[in-house]
Amino acid sequence: MLTNYHTHCFRCQHADGTVEDYVLQALKHKFDILGMSDHVPYPHHDYGFRMEMAEIWDYIYEVENAKKKYSGMIEILLGFESEYLCSQRKYYEELLNDYHVEYLVLGQHFFDYGGRFKSSFSINDSADCVTYAKSVAEGLSTGYYSLFAHPDIVGINQLPWDRNMDEMTDIIVESAVKYDIPLEVNANGIRRGIVNDELGQHYMYPHYKFWEKAAQAKAKTIISADCHSPNLLLDEDVRRARRFADAMGLNVIDVLPIGKNL
Ligand SMILES: [Zn+2]
Ligand SMILES: [Zn+2]
């Protein structure tokens, strides 16, 4: 089965292509399932890098129309990539129950941090990676999410791998296994290139130190393009992500169990 559950579109303001552009690309490569998961807007705050709240129904209709138009040719799913913020629980439930969103991908780009928010991309103390992991564990426990995207995204901060990084990994891998939510090997991390540090040459993410523990725990793993352009749906970096997962001995699944766990 050829699938991708982490797909963006032009609405998030940092991607190209309409939903249909991604569907056509998926058909060209003979995908079985294409899940659209653009960055979710929030009702009372604009966190940037995403569609405006006023566009949410346009996006939903666009996906619904593609579902009808290409029915029988490919399975198209309506999803969002969403952070987990404790204050937004009611909204996440509305998305799943009232907006007919079929699945949410957890992408913890920022997290609750002592009454404020902290960006996962600007962490300079590895202790904050443990706070990140705890916010993730709480998110995964809610049942809102079907997949956890780029679980090791804090690798982008290039902090030395220390005991806090191990603790972060243990918290995330244990909750993913406990709540049976697949972890994602993210091709966008591979697109960001290789770094050379005290561990040698490696991707910032997927970070091999994280995935060693995921492999040991036999955590379910999904490979995603996280494409922000249609031609990245199945490019060389997605193939590299597959090779990475194989080399790490990960428990890769192709089809995501979709269904509300609420
Ligand atoms: Zn994005
Ligand atoms: Zn994404």
Quick summary:
This protein is an alpha/beta fold.
Supply the key terms:
alpha/beta; 262 residues; binds zinc ion; 8 helices; 35% helix; TIM Barrel
Order of helices and strands: EHEHEHEEEHEHEHEEHEHE
Mean pLDDT: 97
Structural class: alpha/beta
Bound molecules: zinc ion
Portion of residues within helices:
25-40%
Poorly predicted spans: none
Shape estimate:
globular
Q: Please write the CATH class name.
A: Alpha Beta
Strand element count: 12
- The name of the CATH superfamily reads Metal-dependent hydrolases
Number of helices: 8
Number of domains: 1
Largest sheet: 5 strands, parallel
Main sheet: which strands, in order across?
1-2-3-4-7
The proportion of strand residues reads 15-25%
> How widely separated are the two ends?
27 Å
What is the element layout, followed by pairings?
Layout: E1 3-4, H1 19-28, E2 33-39, H2 56-69, E3 75-82, H3 89-97, E4 103-106, E5 110-113, E6 116-119, H4 127-141, E7 145-148, H5 163-178, E8 183-186, H6 187-191, E9 194-197, E10 200-203, H7 208-216, E11 220-224, H8 236-248, E12 251-252
Parallel strand pairs: 1-2, 2-3, 3-4, 4-7, 8-11, 11-12
Antiparallel strand pairs: 5-6, 9-10
